[in-house]
Amino acid sequence: MTDTTPLTGAARAAALGDEAQGIAERLEQEHGVRPRLVVVVATEDESTAWYVRSITRAAARAGIACDTVRLPSDAEAAAIRTRLAGLSADPGVHGVILQTPLPPGTSAADLAGAIAPEKDVDGANPLSLGRLAAGLPAFAPATAEAVVALLDAHGIGIAGRGVAVVGRSTVVGKPLAHLLLDRDATVTVCHSRTADLAAVTRTADIVVAAAGRAGLITAAHLAPGAVVVDVGTNPTEDGGLTGDVDAESVAGVAAALSPVPGGIGPVTTALLLQHTALAAQRAVGAHP
After folding, report:
1. Percentage of the chain with pLDDT > 70?
2. Ordered domains of the chain (ranges, CATH)
């Protein structure tokens, strides 16, 4: 039995933050423009509040302005859509995120269509997702892109590898499949209707757990030496977070595993800031 290497995200997140800061500094010095991100929130969910605060702190370190627009937790779809459209039309705003969860009766897919694709830094607009699927320029959902960035940061090859993605959401599973295909992986997308999930994931070199079910992936789901990326962020009774992977079970079986927290999360936040800086750069017609 070999040790399982932790795929931590801090170093990659720091590098992405430095890149975003460099772009922000150049834009302010050369164009008098400071990249600005706006997060629209319509929930009282405490975990969402914690996440938004973490984005705000990271943005401050990178020299990016970050504002939060708070709407009532019972806001109607029309009110949210109007606010998103207004921010999309504001030349002083470069990135817009619609944070979930949303009020009952509203649809993230429907509302995200009000975010202009050029400001859609979390790749939520169906137009962005369509462009991504077609191999055209678009911002990918940051969490999906973070999986690829984390693998790259740890020198884990993707081309020619078999990857099982467990989860088919438009936030992670589906866009990640396209990103991996673009990197020449052979991708299988699994979901709640997959018959004998373990039989499928055991054939994969890399397993990405993004189903939102704590402890779903165990040693029984892995081939010895598989690389496992845990995208799950499931709340625990003590107020912490746990992933979709049973870390104790897979220890010594997986060659590498991303921890929760400390793996995908910081890279996702850093990518949102990098996307915002790039959106601001494009808005003023600047070049790297």
Report:
1. 99
2. 32-116 (3.40.50.10860), 142-265 (3.40.50.720)
